[in-house]
């Protein structure tokens, strides 16, 4: 098969989003608006509604200084952004299952009978997951929340940059979380862009899609 990229045939490539790495370091987002954006982001789908995502908003100079050695080549975003949003997956999210389902009953979204039936099936099922399986579940759900947060931030007039290059084995402990329970999923820088950003390309849908 001919490699179209090597032969400079870009017919299967389309332009993608821009990557923002430099922000207005004097602009700060209020904690109230940050919570509003997180609330909007967490309307995203969640497997059996266990909502495993956990957010840590690193906004102070002191906290950013602790984070800086752990984010490899992404220090520019850390230095200039309004905040670095750390997203973790809770490996024991099922412990909140009763609280979540009780709230659904109180709000008239679920009957008590359905709550009891579902919790009786879901909680033991989750508890029996292997570490690897639970890791997959919480990372899928938390990644959905991360993407939704990026869209929400854009709607609020802010720019973001998703960061996967960080010391995953040290991140939780650095911010005083239990590293066995909370697995790092992604870091998002957020703020007011001070540059056009780096434009990327994406494959055309015909290249990556098949219909059966």
TrEMBL record:
Residues 16-192 form the Nitroreductase domain. Keywords: Oxidoreductase. Pfam families: Nitroreductase. One of its GO terms (molecular function) is oxidoreductase activity. CDD domains: MhqN-like. Its EC number is 1.-.-.-. The keyword Oxidoreductase applies. Belongs to the nitroreductase family. This is Putative NAD(P)H nitroreductase YodC. The gene is yodC_4.
